[in-house]
Each structure stands twice: as structure tokens, then as C-alpha cells.
Amino acid sequence: MWGGFRCSRNSLLILNVFYIAVAICLIDLATHAHTSNGLLGLPIIGGIIACGVFLLIVSIGGIYATVKHHQVLLFFYMVILFVLFIIQFSIACACLAVSQTTQKQLAQQGWQSVGNATKDAVQSQFQCCGYNNLNDTGALGHPSCDDIVACGGDCTGLKENETCNCPTCSVKIQEVIGEAFQLTGGVSLFFSFTEFIGVWLTVRYRNQKDPSGGNPSAFL
């Protein structure tokens, strides 16, 4: 009995400490991406930070409930973990199933929604100019390419019959978005199964009685 009870408790504690580490990493990486990369300054970054904060709160609550062997808190912890498992598993499947067409649409919408300062930063980072066409105007327009080494000079203001060897940014942006979806989907799929393990451990732990009798109110 000691082995079963203590094993379940220690496993839950370790799992929640792992969740805390993951939550801190999510918050730190998302904040760093938001401040250092204009391309990633999208609403999804705020969503990642919110998920990290929520996971941190749930993990701390899980540790408290595990230490106290509190039946009510363990029940709510189990329910929240199961809901997170369903949501995260669905998100993982959706990310892994995103088509090339959708990635292109997201890339174009992202380019249209940002200002010239962000576009200039993207062009400098990927050594490209413009989105699909160097002569694009309006929402798909782009700032000057004077500082782009790969362009070998200014490629703006060209006429329709003139050419430039400067690559456009559409392919690079689509590659970044595609890699982000694959990485997010794979990581989410992995963590969703750890949450399912957490639900199973919580159910098992709730149904075990402390053999030491140190917490007689645990089952109240």
C-alpha cells in the first residue's frame, strides 16, 4: 500500500513540476519571440503566453491538491486536465493537417497586416524583397530594398519589362509558417498524451487512501 500510494503521489508531483517548467518555457519563448521578431508579433503569441500562464496556475493547484490529497481539488484538477487534453489534441491534429493553400493564405494575410517597419525587418532577416512581386503596391507593397545584400542594389521602382535577381519573401514566409505548424502540432500532440497520463494518475491517486492515516479528512 505504501508503494502504490507514494508512487502515485510522487508521480503526480513530478508531472506537475514538469508542467511548471513547460509553462515557464512557453511564457519565456513567446515573450522573446514577441519582442525580437516582428513577424511573430501576431495574436497567436498572446495565446501562447495565456496558455503558459494557465498551465502554470493549474500545475501549482495540482501540486497543492496532491500534497493535501484533497478530493475536491483533485477532481477539478482531473477535469481541467481532461479538457486540456481534448483541446490540445484537437489543436495538434489541426496544426498537422494544415494544407499548403492555407499556409499561403496565412502568409499573405500576415504580410498585409503588418507595417513597413516589420516588412523591412523580415526582408533583412530573410534577404528578400516584396511578397510575390517586386512591383506590388497597396497592402502587398514593400519598403525599399536598398539594404538587402541579396538584391545587389535597389530593386524598387522597376518597370514591368525590367527584371531583378532579388528573391521575393513569399516562399520564405511560407516555409517559416509551415515549420511552425509542424513543430506546434508535434509538441502539442506529445504534451496532450502527458495530460492524459496525468488524468489517469489523478483518478488512481484519488481512489487510494493514505496508509499512514496522516490526512483523515482527505476523503471528506
Summarize this entry quickly.
The protein is mostly helical.
Per-chain topology:
Layout: H1 2-36, H2 43-68, H3 71-96, H4 100-113, H5 116-126, H6 170-206
Account of the 3D structure:
The protein is mainly alpha-helical and 220 residues long. 68% of the residues lie in helices and 0% in strands. Helix 1 runs antiparallel to helix 6, helix 2 (43-68) packs antiparallel against helix 3 and helix 3 (71-96) packs antiparallel against helix 6.
Q: What keywords describe this structure?
A:
Tetraspanin_EC2_sf, elongated, mainly alpha, single chain, 220 residues, Tetraspanin/Peripherin
Give the beta-strand count. Answer: 0
Mean pLDDT: 76
Low-confidence stretches: none
Question: What distance separates the N and C termini?
Answer: 20 Å
Number of domains: 2
Structural class: mainly alpha
